[in-house]
Amino acid sequence: MDQRITTGSAGQVSESSFLSRVYAWMAVGLGVSALASYWLLMQPGLLRMMVVNPMAMILLIVAEIGLVIWLSAGVMRMSVPLATTVFLIYSFLNGVTLTPILLIYTSISVYSTFAITAGTFLFFSVYGMTTKKDLTSIGNLMVMGLIGIILAGVVNLFLKSPVLYWISTFVGIAVFLGLVAWDTQKLKSIHAMGFESEEMQKKVAILGALTLYLDFINLFILLLRIFGKRRD
Fold first, then answer.
1. Which residue of 39, 109, 111, 219 shows the fewest CB atoms closer than 10 Å?
2. Is the pTM above the cut of 0.85?
3. Per the domain annotation, does 209 fall within a domain?
4. What average pLDDT does this structure show over 212-225?
């Protein structure tokens, strides 16, 4: 998201059109994840294997991280079809790995938390889009907070502290709300710089969709800890 884009008019589109494309791709990613989760639920044998075999989950998560790093670092060198494919594969894998987590909670609480996440995400994204305040300093603070949350999560794998769990949950929600606003503002700034070509504009839209998708999913998981009702 921070790659420098040379100003030009060949690929320039209106801000609303560009952001609409970003949100459309994000919605496609969420849709693919939902379909992947539904597909896995229809494969009880495969789902059981994932639940009882932690190594399978670990391998899938490592693959997801690899795809995110590949797309984030190399999107400008990829073709648009390849960047699109990587994004969709990642969305599918993420839907698969989220399914065992979602099964912990009742369906109604999952749906209601998704709706809460969507509304909250929309509010902070609109804020990032419309505010005149430069959110760079806030964004940098949120990145440091994100690193802290990751470290706390790793430490808590061993400590298993409920207090640390809930502190990281509420801090994490604040961090991702800040990131939603900041990432949206960054997309506006990138658009203002202009694009060399239509192809570059499409690549940046896919990368922007990935960034907002990650913000949304992580916010959803954290809110699910609060609003999700566990199955009996």
1. 111
2. yes
3. yes
4. 98
